């Protein structure tokens, strides 16, 4: 018989085993991840349902003193008496005692005032004494009496006569004419002199304040007594604007609210006596309104360019403790 050889079954490749191991490991990691997410989600839901979460405090002291704080030590530290105030009981006896420093002694010049000897007076120097002498001046000759004639004053009269002799006498003026005094400025100022204009930085011409309006009364009016009835003076012309004719967005200033139009006009006249400069050129507006079943009349001023102009107007009234509110028509 012929001899037959039999080989064993071929072994599985190594790469196939490694792939299966990786697949199983990935599946295990995925299951663990899914389980962890499920547990975490359950804890989150359970915590929100249970109420306010409780935060666990960290372990260890909240504050710690530094090992080397630095700085300077305060005086009188380490004394036994300090332990009584700090801990409430006396401390143990100290193992080492340190004496206090010796007190500062007195100097040689630290004596009583009665013991001090006065210093010797300093004698002035001869040169200073000579300069300090006072010499009385004596008039030369006899003094001039008070009732003496000016012509008999000696040298003064001779000097006056010498000056008069050298001067040219003036010609007399005819009777009934007076000399005209003419001041010549031609030599001092040139003809057609013009001021030199400033060309540097800043204002070339200074600003001037506006003139007072011609129609504004310059007489001061006496303020009305508190509690007195205010009457409206209908003789004074005031431009009153109908509130229905004003367009939406018009800048106004509300001064107050009153029970009747006459009271509002009287308040305008009273304020015109106090703030005439500010109310000049402003129109009066009386608007009827109602609130809570009550009818009242709003007193407003018209004639403002913008909100800033209205605020400046109200600033003057508020400074005098008068109600003033910028408003806009709707």
UniProtKB/TrEMBL annotation:
PROSITE patterns: SPOR
Source species, domain of life: Bacteria
GO MF annotation, one: peptidoglycan binding
This protein's UniProt keywords: Membrane, Transmembrane, Transmembrane helix
SUPFAM superfamilies: Sporulation related repeat
Domain SPOR: 245-330
Keyword Membrane appears in the UniProt entry: yes
TM helices/strands, residue ranges: 21-42
Record's protein name: Sporulation protein
Species annotation: Mameliella alba
């Amino acid at each position: 018989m012929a001899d037959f050889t039999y080989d064993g079954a071929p072994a599985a490749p190594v790469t196939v085993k490694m792939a299966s191991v990786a697949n199983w490991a990935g599946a295990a990691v995925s299951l663990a991840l899914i389980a962890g997410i499920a547990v975490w989600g359950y804890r989150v839901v359970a915590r929100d349902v249970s109420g306010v979460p409780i935060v666990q405090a960290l372990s260890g002291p909240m504050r710690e003193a530094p090992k080397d704080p630095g700085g300077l030590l305060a005086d009188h530290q380490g004394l036994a008496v300090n332990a009584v105030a700090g801990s409430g009981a006396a401390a143990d006896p100290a193992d080492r005692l340190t004496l206090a420093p010796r007190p500062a002694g007195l100097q040689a010049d630290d004596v009583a005032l009665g013991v001090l000897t006065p210093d010797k007076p300093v004698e002035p120097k001869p040169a200073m004494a000579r300069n300090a002498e006072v010499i009385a001046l004596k008039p030369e000759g006899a003094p001039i009496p008070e009732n003496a004639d000016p012509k008999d004053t000696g040298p003064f009269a001779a000097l006056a006569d010498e000056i008069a002799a050298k001067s040219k006498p003036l010609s007399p003026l005819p009777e009934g004419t007076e000399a005209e005094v003419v001041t010549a400025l031609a030599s001092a100022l040139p003809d057609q002199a013009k001021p030199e204009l400033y060309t540097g930085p800043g204002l070339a011409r200074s600003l001037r304040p506006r003139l007072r309006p011609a129609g504004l009364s310059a007489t001061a009016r006496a303020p009305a007594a508190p509690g007195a009835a205010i009457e409206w003076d209908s003789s004074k012309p005031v431009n009153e604007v109908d509130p229905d004719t004003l367009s939406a967005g018009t800048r106004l200033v509300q001064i107050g609210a009153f029970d009747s139009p006459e009271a509002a006009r009287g308040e305008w006249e009273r304020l015109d006596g106090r703030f005439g400069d500010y109310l000049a050129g402003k129109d009066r507006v009386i608007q009827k309104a109602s609130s809570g079943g009550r009818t009242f009349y709003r007193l407003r001023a018209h004639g403002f360019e913008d909100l800033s102009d209205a605020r400046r107007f109200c600033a003057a009234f508020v400074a005098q403790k008068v109600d003033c509110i910028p408003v806009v028509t709707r």
